[in-house]
Amino acid sequence: MRGLTRSLAILVAGAAVALAVGGRAAAAAPAGCQAEVQKFCPTIPAGGGRVLVCLQEHASQLSPDCQKELQGAQRHAEKRRANRAAAGAWVSPCTGDIQKLCQGIAAGAGRIAECLGQHQAELSEGCRAAFGKAGK
After folding, report:
1. Which of 29, 31, 62, 136 is the most exposed place for a label (fewest CB within 10 A)?
2. Which SS3 state, helix, strand or coil, does residue 62 take?
3. Torsion of CA 76, 79, 81, 84, to 10 degrees
4. Where are the chain's structural domains?
């Protein structure tokens, strides 16, 4: 559950930032931002969203392609955060149901929610109520 509380920068970093080459941020940004990384953030180490934060600090100086990619990455991260927040509302009341009905299902990409949805008739009362409120 600690992963649910990660900051936006870390979420975006997971979606948009690759590994740095040789400790530098050479390839650590969306494809449309490579030139900007070299220009504005060449010494910033990848990881933890640092390259993304650097790019955001130079937002007004970025190319239109890079700005568009960063905005897309931010929308993606916000959507993931909203989905995780909604999931958090039903995870606790459904823990027993998940263990019983969805054993062996890997978490992520909505697989647990899909499993619970396929077993709605078998859900406990508390899980059914919480899961239904979450719009699943």
Report:
1. 31
2. coil
3. -130
4. 1-77, 92-136
Q: What are phi and psi of 112, to 5 degrees?
A: -65, -45
Q: Residue 58 CB: number of other CB atoms within 10 A?
A: 14
**Which pTM was predicted?**
0.44
- Compute the mean pLDDT over every residue in the chain, rounded to the nearest whole number: 73
Q: Check residue 13 and give its pLDDT.
A: 37
Sequence-ordered alpha helix ranges (H) in 1-136: 8-16, 34-40, 50-57, 64-91, 95-101, 111-118, 125-133
**Number of C-alpha atoms within 13 angstroms, CB side, residue 40?**
22
**Matching residue, tokens 């900007």:** 36
Given this model, what pLDDT does residue 133 score? 62
Q: If residue 107 lies in a helix (H) or strand (E), which one and from where to where?
A: none
